[in-house]
Amino acid sequence: MPEIRVGAGHDLHRLEPGHRLVLAGVEIPAERGAVGHSDADVVLHAVTDAILGAAALGDIGRLFPNTDPAYRDADSGLFLTEAVRLAGLAGFEIGNVDATVILEEPLLAPHIDGMRTTLADALGIPVDRVSIKAKTGEQIESIGRGEALACEAVVLLARS
Ligand code: MG
Asked: What separation in Å is there between the alpha carbon of 39 and the centre of ligand 1?
């Protein structure tokens, strides 16, 4: 049996008017966008951490500190690409990704396939190995009140 590794990632950002909402590299029209040092893409941050976790290579905050001016408003695709590269150097290729976005609004259903395609391209794997699901916060707590959004992701790596 080939060596396989599972990794988990989690991310959360505040939502405020006047910011962009970028999810899996896709800009989504929304009244409130995600606040962060980079482009605050919770999907790419969670998936990046899941890859780093599976390969035991640390975490996104250690590799790309939010105190570093180089990452201000950065395209989070850069973080993901670097995590894929480092995992590759450690001998791993990506099997599949499953991510769940938790967001009150807007409705993500019309954007899911575009997000999957963009994420699959960034990962360099076929889109049928990339799943993105969406949930709401049931109108309670910070996510349900539209004050924040979050993403949970799991990634499978296999020794190549
Ligand atoms: Mg983040």
From this structure: 9
Residue 37 has pLDDT above 70, yes or no: yes
CB 38 within 8 A of CB 67: no
| Range list of H helices, the chain | 42-54, 60-63, 77-89, 112-123, 141-144
Using the mean position of ligand 1's atoms as its centre, give its distance from the Cα of residue 123 in Å: 18
Would you state the pLDDT for residue 1?
66
Per-chain residues with Cβ under 5 A from ion ligand 1? 11, 45
Question: Which regions of 4-43 does DSSP assign to beta strands (E)?
Answer: 4-17, 22-23, 26-27, 32-35
Going by the DSSP 8-state scheme, the letter that residue 147 receives in this structure is S
Distance CA 158, CA 152 (A): 20
Regarding predicted confidence, which is higher, 55 or 64? Answer: 55
How many whole angstroms separate alpha carbon 155 and alpha carbon 75?
21
Residues 22-34 have pLDDT tens digits of 999 999 999 999 9
